[in-house]
Amino acid sequence: MSMEPRRPDPQQTWTAVDGYFNGLLVEEDAALLAAVAASEAAGLPPHQVAPNQGKLLSLLARVHGARRILEIGTLGGYSTIWLARALPEGGHLVTLEADERCAVVATRNLERAGLAGVVEVRTGPALETLPQLEAEGAEPFDLVFIDADKPGNPAYLEWALRLTRPGSLIIGDNVVRDGAVTDELSTDPRVQGVRRFTERLGAHPRLTATAVQTVGEKGYDGFVLALVTG
């Protein structure tokens, strides 16, 4: 009896492909590697973007010519470093983190990367710090990266619209949820948060958006990209 050849594990293949392209196209310097190591040592969850995804964020910011960036969800500051390095001279990034422990680790990682003068870390629930930005008369942001608790995504989108201008980009990460986003009966509040977020993106008259599925070392997920049009 002949046996079918053993199929490779998809995750192993995705990780190997990421490794191939990262080895040729993405360079993690000492500051980025140290940010990952410090986050792990502090016991933070390994939820930072993959290196190639960090590079994508950086390229999007550079292509867009972003001078002001808002990040909702800092974790250990890995994606923050990628985004901040894309800013031109005089650019500024504000990153919001609810967990004080994460904010402390991120601040140290940003200082190590030489970005303390470029990035402002604000600690506290985003639904408290976002209104503070508006009350302070913050200039519109050119790019908003939403990578925080998924049940909060619909509210974060509304605030992103209040703090941007026509032409700004809004990026939302981790929206595929291993395909669970298609389950309208899901009891997972993260899935339902992403679904409401996506529905509002599609229905909002000031936005045009798309979504991209991704596979890689972080598994199966994806992101949405939206342009503020009016």
Based on the coordinates given, report the CATH architecture. Answer: 3-Layer(aba) Sandwich
C-alpha Rg (nearest Å): 18 Å
| Global morphology | globular
- Please count the beta strands (DSSP E, at least 2 residues each): 7
The CATH topology comes to Rossmann fold
Give the CATH class. Answer: Alpha Beta
Query: Low-confidence segments, ≥5 residues, pLDDT <50?
Result: none
Number of helices: 8
What percent of the residues sit in helical stretches (DSSP H or I)? 40-55%
CATH H-level superfamily:
Vaccinia Virus protein VP39
Strand order, largest beta sheet:
3-2-1-4-5-7-6
Beta percentage is 15-25%
Order of helices and strands: HHHEHEHEHEHEHEE
- For the report, how would you describe the main beta sheet? 7 strands, mixed
Mean pLDDT, all residues = 96
Q: What is the terminal-to-terminal distance?
A: 66 Å
Structural class: alpha/beta
* Whole-number total of structural domains: 1
